[in-house]
Amino acid sequence: SKSWRKIKNMVHWSPFVMSFKKKYPWIQLAGHAGSFKAAANGRILKKHCELEQRCLNRLMNDVLKPYVPAYHGDVVKDGERYNQMEDLLAEFDSPCVMDCKMGVRTYLEEELIKARKKPSLRKDMYQKMIEVDPNAPTEEENVLRAVTKPRYMQWRETISSTATLGFRIEGIKVSLASC
């Protein structure tokens, strides 16, 4: 039994054999679909955001560094710019994942300004709203069967623990292997 464990650990840590390690299926619980791509060597690519890049760079020289994914700069792939980060799930065959949004507001002020400058009615966001609370839309929103993005974003923050506790759990995926 001990010799097998030793071999298993050698296989697990050997960079040559690592490429044959079974990979987990890509997991994205929330956020904008298509924002992430799997990359080589235990890394992921996330669509580039200048503000996020500055934050990631600062974190690499901060006391929080041991608690965040390693940042490996930005890359261009298929004509698209990405921030390249450590894939924290790379070592797991069947991970359980929780997406936790932190902060008292989970959207950028720029998003709100942009959405207010060019408001468009969103039927999809209206649907999400009434699925959670059929009484949430105003009379006008019910007639239009749509809401604006700023209205939806602000409403969403008020119904969750975001505003009161400073975080919310956006999604959880439990691995079938853990049951």
UniProtKB/TrEMBL annotation:
GO terms for biological process: inositol phosphate biosynthetic process; phosphatidylinositol phosphate biosynthetic process. Keywords: Kinase, Transferase. It is an enzyme of class 2 (transferase). Signal peptide: none annotated. It holds the Pfam family IPK. Its EC number is 2.7.-.-. One of its GO terms (molecular function) is inositol hexakisphosphate kinase activity. The keyword Transferase applies. One of its GO terms (cellular component) is cytoplasm. It comes from the Eukaryota. Belongs to the inositol phosphokinase (IPK) family. This is Kinase. It comes from Alaudala cheleensis. The gene is Itpkb.
